[in-house]
Write the structure tokens for this entry.
Amino acid sequence: MRAFRFESLTLPPAAQAMRRKVRAFLDDERAHARYAAHRTSWSTFDPEFSRRAAAAGFIGMTWPRQYGGGEYSNLERFVVTEEMLVAGAPGGAHWIADRQSGPQILRHGSERARRLILPRIAAGECYFGIGMSEPDSGSDLAAVRTRAHKCENGWLINGAKIWTSNAHRVHYLIVLARTEAPGQDRHAGLSQFIVETASDGIEVRPILNLAGGHEFNEVFFRDCFVPDDMMIGRPGEGWTRVTGELAFERAGPDRFMSDIRLLIELIENVGRAPSERQAIEIGRLVAHFAALRRMSSSVAGLLERGESPVTEAALVKDAGTAFEREIPEIVRKLLPVEPSLDDDDEYSQALATVLLHAPSFTIRGGTPEILRGMIARGLGLR
Amino acid sequence: MIEEMSAIVLEQADRLFQQHVNKNLLTEADGGKWPAPLWKALEDAGLPLALVPEAAGGVGLAPGTVGSLIRRAAFYSVPLPLAETIVANRLWADAGGDPLDGTATLAPVNPQDCLVATPSDGGVVLRGTAHNVPWGMQASTTLLYARDGSGRGVLCRTLPAKVLPKKTRRNIAYEPRDEMCFDGVELAANNVRLAPDYLGTDGLLAFGAAIRAQQMIGGMERCMDYALAYANERVQFGRAIGKFQAVQHMLAVAAGHFAAASAAADALFEFERLGDDTLSVAIAKSRCGEAAGLVAAVCHQVHGAMGFTQEHPLHFATRRLWAWRDECGSESYWQARIGSMICAAGGESFWPLLTDGGMPPRPNLTARE
């Protein structure tokens, strides 16, 4: 069997030291009641929190100092990510910029883009959205129809993106657009652009999600100008670029810890003396969780070595989101409660919140159906 | 240097397994024939002493390398107590004993069993029954863990000839798993040693579970190899069945379980910690067991009727997976242990327990928000 690269990895002392540091920060946040633990933490948008996290050095951690980074390792960043998630910290404002847009600009952006944008992300002041999906192009990303035409000093973008989380409150989108007419190779002729949401020619329309929240948007581009040096990589490299970006997006702890607070509340509510059935089911979830943590940290190790572990990231996301989806279902079985957002009981509220968000876990960032195709390719079946 | 040697030993072992273990040998082993030439070859290669420190006359391989060795042996379905012998030799050496002769097994490795050693004439008298002892009546030596009168753990070495075999039985891979009654067995002082202090309250159970976890990784890898090869060569409806999305997705899900199980079993590469790191052992054994069931099911499904025959060798691997997942504590046994530990610590201690290796939670983390 073609081996996947999940090498065993022990977190270095520096990562453990970072764990203490971020815990102290989060303890202080809670001690001063600066945030309430959210149950879908990394989709909770709180710029104030992002600025405080940045001031404490937890955004742009792995980037060079000259761009506002902390020059920490990916494993130190891994630890900070999981601590933020387990604490239910509202990191939604900076999450995308820190996780994938910033690293993408650092690796493939122009020098001006790096200088202009990265220090602001690292300061917790600049946020990003993902401009990949389109009304007629969801899982089939290569079918995007948004076009970018060359003009003097830049490009003019026309088309529409959809499911663009936070487009109404972020500063930039990274937009995948066609720069050449589709030919034989459908992955050719695509390019990535950094588009300022304040530009002329952009219109953002809200789409409410089933939980009643406004995260999603539809974004329309009409002759929206992007300067040459806001292209990521070179013209036509878009497919390679977007695939690399997804390796950052898919393997982190946010792919199996979206509802970890609900598991913690289940354990708390079950109490110190669980029934055998409760112990077995909770034990099973914990075993799954522990294995996912090890897989995810080993991908962080691969990223640290500069590799682009695309298939491994797909494996983590597929297994990770299956775990996230299972938590509310097991919670229901073990300690039944009628979920309600209005309930005074936190447990009932938590279950309600998670149930209303859970369908998105296995859609955002690539569905299991797409991921399994990638894994099958890695196994030599395609 | 050490890494180089590890690679050489693994390569050499792999060659031996490949040379000796074939369908014929496995079929004969199923029928109860002891593969003596294979054991001789493994012994000549020094494998039984793989984990014993060089200073004590062993090979002194790193536990991680031995973990890989156990996985490889299981990949080939080696029908011998190689892993049990390796672990028994290390435990006995750490207790101050000399290398054991021939094959060895560990008892008890069944969660319900407990043996008692009462001091007598400088030696001990044993009491208790061990169930499902791997290769119990065939292994040259049985290494026992028992509690003496004062509650201390002792390791005892005995010969199967001294024991009353209550029942010989086999698991569904036809590996011997015997019921052995030790009531009244007298052992002289040179066969009894104080157990190494890293042995925890679970005694040998934790080590048995760790062995089975590593073996399941090897067995799953073999099944996946068979299934991937078959999916690429078997043609139906004009194309290889591996080209069908339904088949691809089944195998992708199985690969995910395999990867997760491997990650969990990788956590067991520190030998001395196996004794008291119950959480890691429990996580690995239960995660591997769950994956093993799923991987075996998917691989059989891919093989269709062919996999349900004696002709195709898949069954040598899958029957072992079905046996091993239930031995030394099934999934539900270990999951219940994890759940009880986690719940006893409380919700807010769940995270420190996983990240700080059981450190007690700091007070400000236990506060409710």
